[in-house]
Specification:
The complex is a heterodimer of chains A (about 250) and B (about 325). Chain A is an alpha/beta fold and about 250 residues long. In chain A, about 35% of the residues lie in helices and about 25% in strands. In chain A, the strands form two sheets. In chain A, strands 6-7-8-3-9-10 form a six-stranded mixed beta sheet, with helices on both faces. Chains A and B meet through helix 2 and helix 3 of A and helix 9 and helix 12 of B.
Chain lengths: ~250, ~325
């Protein structure tokens, strides 16, 4: 469902993503992991057709992400890094907008909007403008927008950060259910315990290069141990002045 | 006292930076118009445009400076009760307050103008206390529009209503419509007033995406919409506002001028990434871009009003062509970061 070959993106002399090659099968939940600045968001942007690769190729749903961007957008749902919300629209208006532009019949859109608002605990804040929402509410709104058109592939950039535990559990449940029905989920996250629970494939990058790619069954040890070993060594630096006397 | 002083310095710095953003009017078409009239030996018209800008600027200038500090942050700072009481005096540090008092005492200022300025100041001072997001909620209940662009048009209208350009145009349109309704607006003034209203609004056509923010721009690229559709949703908000303000004056000339304002501002709107601020005048891309846009607007509007109404036909054609052309450009930009 997602396939990329030698995917590379350079910004001047800096290489954000360096020759990434990977395959994600239909119905998988792929956790795309790496430290800040590793190239995760750049990769997601290239897979969604938002960013042209410098070289290499990304195919999603059988479409070339760089060339067939318009067609691809109709088949994927995306939770972008910056959430992609308009300050001047309310939570509910964002979802109705999604229904309108994806061509859902009004009755279907209305029923999906109500269901998603309810499931994600957004019903009480449906009339709140995005500019006045908490970060968690904004994230849930963007997540609901990604789900609403019932996409074949979901790209989620840090979906679990800044959401409350109940919503996080609800979101995990929704993703597992969607994957079991054939939706492919490609997500980035720093919350290793959560992704270890739901993901069926783990991909790690460091400095734009692939350092690990396996299924859950192929993991040799705990995800956290593997992550600290391959993607980002733990930094045990102490701050000496902290707690050592008031000043 | 050192803590209080530190807070006051921070508030002062934030207020100063905020005030600098008010200078955006120097890139606005209404300011350019006033300046052009000054060079055309019409100082009265320049003073008129300057007073107009000053009145509209009073609203954002008259806010409480302490609002620059997020309330949650203010509550967390380790200040004593006495220091917090002293901090409540900061609204009186607003530089406009002594100015208003001086104007009220100055004999040459008419009571009407003094009351207008004082009233604007009071509204700016009190409105932010009425609750968060007052401006947005004011225009929260907009009617739905037919078609898939409904929510985008509503959003774009709310954006337009949060610019000072809109209020400047409204300040011109409201009395003109009032006098027109009473049959007291001289016939020879109808056309020029229509054009001035459009000029006051026209910089917004250069900054169509200026208030969308990073998130909004990302969403445009994610939505399965063509570039021309995105532009159409933007234009619908602008055209509805412009037509509503000029329909009772010179409807066809107003429409022609508004269409040309959009066509003339297209390049700046699509290719120049200049972020704008709410409750400020919109700042055009460059003087050249503004001059080009204003010339198109005036020629099209005046030509339709005073020469032949058929001029609306090429105006529509040029508008449609720029919408298509720059729409394609948006489509290409969607994957060309």
């Amino acid at each position: 469902m997602i396939s990329c070959r030698q995917l590379t993106r350079r910004y001047g002399a800096f290489t954000a993503v360096d020759g990434l090659t990977l395959e994600v099968e239909r119905g998988a939940i792929c956790a795309f992991l790496g430290p800040n600045g590793a190239g995760k968001s750049t990769t997601v942007k290239m897979l969604c057709g938002l960013l042209a690769p410098t070289s290499g190729e990304a195919m999603v749903c059988g479409l070339n992400a760089a060339r067939d961007g318009a067609a691809l957008k109709r088949r994927i749902g995306v939770l972008p890094e910056n959430l992609g919300l308009f300050e001047e629209l309310t939570v509910e208006e964002h979802l109705l907008l999604t229904g309108d532009v994806y061509g859902l019949p009004p009755a279907v859109a209305r029923s999906r909007v109500d269901e998603l608002l309810d499931a994600l605990g957004l019903a009480h804040g449906r009339d709140t403008f995005a500019a006045e929402c908490s970060h968690g509410m904004r994230k849930k709104t963007a997540f609901a927008m990604a789900l609403l058109p019932n996409p074949e592939v979901l790209f989620l950039d840090e979906p679990f950060e800044a959401v409350d535990p109940v919503t996080s559990k609800t979101m995990r449940g929704i993703l597992v259910q969607a994957a079991s029905r054939g939706v492919t989920v490609f997500l980035t996250s720093h919350i290793l315990a959560v992704v270890e629970e739901i993901a069926s494939r783990f991909v790690m990058i460091r400095g734009g290069r692939l350092v690990w790619n396996s299924t859950r069954e192929e993991l040799p040890r705990r995800l956290e141990d593997l992550y600290f070993e391959l993607a980002e060594p733990a930094n045990g630096k102490e701050i000496e002045w902290l707690g050592s006397g008031r000043s | 006292m050192a803590r209080l002083w530190a807070v006051l310095v921070a508030v002062w710095k934030a207020a100063q930076r905020d005030r600098k953003s008010l200078a955006s009017f120097s890139g606005n078409n209404i300011f350019h118009l006033g300046f052009a009239l000054l060079f055309l030996q019409d100082p009265g018209a320049f003073v008129f445009s300057a007073v107009l800008i000053a009145i509209v600027l009073f609203l954002p200038l008259s806010g409480d400076p302490l609002r620059k500090v997020p309330p949650e942050r203010l509550a967390l700072w380790p200040l004593e009760a006495g220091e917090r009481r002293l901090l409540r005096m900061t609204p009186w540090l607003n530089p406009l307050l002594p100015l208003i008092l001086a104007m009220l005492l100055w004999r040459k200022v008419t009571t009407g103008l003094a009351l207008l300025l004082g009233g604007t100041f009071a509204v700016g001072f009190l409105a932010p206390r009425a609750g968060r997001g007052g401006g947005r909620r004011l225009f929260g209940r907009l009617p739905p529009f037919p078609g898939p662009l409904n929510q985008l048009i509503r959003k774009n209208l709310r954006e337009l209503f949060s610019t000072l350009d809109f209020y400047c145009a409204l300040l011109l349109a409201a009395p003109a419509l009032f006098f027109q309704a009473g049959g007291r607006l001289p016939e020879e003034a109808v056309g020029p007033v229509t054009l001035v209203i459009l000029l006051a609004l026209s910089t917004c056509a250069q900054t169509l995406f200026g208030l969308d923010g990073e998130g909004g721009l990302t969403r445009y690229r994610l939505l399965p919409l063509r570039g021309w559709q995105v532009l159409l949703a933007k234009d619908a908000a602008f055209l509805m506002t412009a037509v509503a303000m000029t329909a009772a004056l010179e409807p066809l000339g107003g429409l022609a001028g508004a269409l040309m304002a959009l066509a003339g501002g297209r390049r700046a709107a699509v290719q120049v990434d200049r972020r704008q601020a709410r409750w400020r005048f919109q700042m055009g891309a460059s003087f050249g871009a503004s001059l080009f846009q204003m010339t198109l607007l005036v020629v099209a509007g005046a030509g339709t009003m005073f020469w032949t109404p058929l001029l609306i036909v090429p105006c529509v054609a040029v508008y449609a062509a720029t919408t298509y052309w720059f729409g394609r450009m948006i489509d290409r930009q969607a994957c060309a970061e």
